[in-house]
Amino acid sequence: MSCPAVDVPVTVWIVRKKDGDPIRPLATIPGLLADANKILWQRGLTLVRTGAVRYLNNDAWLNHTNVFSETNAVMAAMMDSTNSMGKAVELYFVNTLDGDNGPLGLRHPKGIAIASGAGSRTIAHEVLHDCGLEDIYIADGQGNPLLEQVSEQ
Questions:
Q1: Each residue's pLDDT tens digit, 131-145
Q2: Are 97 and 117 spatial neighbours (Cβ–Cβ below 8 Å)?
């Protein structure tokens, strides 16, 4: 099966720490996107950065809690502060999502948040969620979902 090639415009936002340093070094972004593209090309997708990396200067947006709540005002405020007018996937590089043991990435209706410890696999995973794909989990013999993903079996 062949997939049509689609360029996916991406706008990159990096939250800065109190001292002004970005939570993710600028020099790492091209490599992260290139490595994510090595995964995404299998589905005919290529991430294409639109313009320069942009910065968010609000340390309240470094560490997010309660990230799975649909009423997460902090996450929404961060993503509402920017706007690519629906013409690009917005990637937000933050420090943590629900603490050090939280998810590495999160697809939100207004963008994708990526924790500082995440790599290109997480970016590709969340972009595929943004394209409508869901996680696939296995179930036991009675149809009860197990916690591990199919890839972990």
A1: 888 776 555 666 555
A2: no
